[in-house]
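Running this now, will post back.
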Amino acid sequence: MSSFPDSPAFTGFNTPSRVEADVFDLAVEGTIPPEIHGTFYRVQPDPQFPPLLGNDIPFNGDGMIARFHFENGRVHFRQRWAKTDKWKLEHDAGRSLFGAYRNPLTDDPAAKGTIRGTANTNAFLHGGRLYALKEDSPALVMDPDTLETLGYTDFGGMTGETFTAHPKIDPETGDMIGFGYASKGICTRDMTYYEVAPDGTLKREIWFENPYYCMMHDFAVTRDYALFHVVPIVSSWERLAEGKPHFGFDTTLPVHLGVLPRREGATAADIRWFTTENCFASHVMNAFQEGDRIHFDTPVAKNNMFPFFPDVHGAPFNPMESASFLTRWTVDMASNSDAFESRTRLTDMAGEFPRIDDRYQGLPYRYGWLLVIDPTKPVELKGGSAGGAVMNTLGMVDHETGTEQSWWCGPVSSLQEPCFIPRGPDAPEGDGWIVMICNRLEDRASDLLLFDATDIAKGPIASARIPVRMRFGLHGNWLPAAA
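Update: finished.
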């Protein structure tokens, strides 16, 4: 008989759930507006079996996709595994075969040659297809209704080994814009840029090299450019051979922003690299152009945010320096300098998991939402934290007026990533709702919350009790029924 380790990553609220379910008509407090018609998808890492090496980090769990379908003022729930090649191999074996996060040197010999991806980072919709994504592997296709796993795709010609967990949709063409890092394998500097048509076929692929190998989790697009921020969460085969965590943070390296023109005929030779001083940045809220200037909005911390990816020089994790604040990086394409023109903090709310009204992807925009860590609020970790730092507040920034709003979820709860639902395809920016999961830590329960998007301070307008505990998830997206 096997059991999960008695460690914070596998106990309390973080106890593996491993439940596939169908629940019709969730119990709701408040009122779900009847005009909300569509589906919210999200994914959580949820290990199928106890870890091979006795313990593990949260990022290494198998992908579990949840589907919340809204119709006629009701919401229905479905949850299924993303049945990756790894999941199938381990399921047949009845035990874990893959070892440490992104370290094939620690795998059981039976796992050799199998794609190690877990499809646990994002549930993304494009062209009527549901993609379960993990940045170390290709995109996994699932049926958006049944959640049946259909298998990995190369979009009919992708030659790189990896596809990002954070693609973007071009609001003008409807194309899915993506990239891959470590495209020739673990620890390689090779990158690929992709454009995928709504029918799921590859339109374009460009290969280039990063200044150094790093975890490039997210990126941004504007009307004319793709933007890649290179932050020193680094690795090497030497680290893996020594049994260290795959990634570590290097405070001695600079940060770069690569700007790739999206015009027809552009190549790797057209990329321009800008440089700034060392910092930590991962997710991107949005980016847009203003004349020759490009603005890139990302939460920025002075130091590493990931305690499980320690400092490569042995410095202890610094919680105070891990606080990230939404910051605007500006570069001037007309300048002869490779330095950033400016770095401007946009809010004093410390937070991450930034989201926008996705119809404004790559365009000037007004509203942004994010998960906030409010240190002024009391915290009672009854039942354990749902995942690292306690993100206890939903925040909203209005870039046009400079105003902010926030809503605190209480001392024994925490929140997961927000997602915007537009009232309709032609509704003004921000006219709609925010949907997100709230972790009820003491009860080991989860609620699905719904807010008026630009009036979050008044609290949820509806709350649906999910009869299955949702582990801390990473990312999710909305699909209107008309799509």
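The helical segments are 85-93, 237-241. More later if anyone needs it.
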